[in-house]
Amino acid sequence: MAPKREAPRGALPKSELEIAKVVWELGEATVRQVLEALPVERELDFWTVQTYLRRLEAKGYLAKRRDGRNNVYSPAVRPTTVISETMDDFINRLFDGEALPLFQHLIRDRDLSDAEIDELQQTLNTLKADRKRGRSS
Amino acid sequence: MAPKREAPRGALPKSELEIAKVVWELGEATVRQVLEALPVERELDFWTVQTYLRRLEAKGYLAKRRDGRNNVYSPAVRPTTVISETMDDFINRLFDGEALPLFQHLIRDRDLSDAEIDELQQTLNTLKADRKRGRSS
DNA sequence: TATCATCACGTTCAAATGAACGTAAACGGA
DNA sequence: TCCGTTTACGTTCATTTGAACGTGATGATA
Predict the structure, then answer these.
(1) What is the CA A46 to C1' C14 distance in angstroms?
(2) Rounded to a whole number, what is the distance in Å from the CA of B117 to chain A's nearest CA?
(3) Is A78 on the interface with B (CB under 8 A)?
(4) Torsion angle, alpha carbons of B27, B30, B31, B35, to 10
């Protein structure tokens, strides 16, 4: 059965993604908790954060639970899913859906440390090995 | 001397990027040429394309040259620069500026062919070798 | 040289997005 | 139990983005 993407859910806008990320990190959070978890230089209003959380819930990205007088928000869609969708969108837009050119650019542009390069090679080797073995799911 | 990023030029919107990419591919192009270079299923108006090209010029991404009655647009900023900026913005938004997690996600999520994996490894090896040698710009 | 098609430019318009508020309800401490 | 504080919800507002048009100018062709 295909993974069946519930709804296309076109890529999240900047600000909403930013807020969603905070919720992901915290696991679940109230408006105030999100506000406090934001970097200090990012001076967002309590109300603004509230707005984004509400929108995220309306779009189906977050679930809302009541805890006393507070709303507690938590992921309704797995973060990795959202990240994948966002990356897909990005790759489609910039590289016609080809991952390879993105890699090349990335490798060349970002100053990767030697350690990071090693780590990447490691990952690739592992992936390759896994491929040879079980080629399932 | 530092590369000196002229203006922050916050990441291009979807549609404008789409049009800019066409210009990059063609090297330079008139409105009509861009329109015709777009995939057929993308039914954009002549006027709409014109608008985006104009905006891109206003933002400093494209240069405009007159050829008879036509405007001919060409890159005013190197495409690779724009791509880098766009990627930076994306990585900042989604991965706090860390390239590595992006790689991991990418490697795991996109179904890379064996050949692609090989190519990546090749690239990494080359990069590593180059590093050892001249470390300057 | 008159005509017709094409083009540039300014302008417009709706929807999405970033950001914020006012009010009324709910809670905890005095 | 009353008061001050905090929160939710609906609502609003400006800007950006996606998309398109009308008019006047321009050039090729008859």
Answers:
(1) 29
(2) 7
(3) no
(4) -60
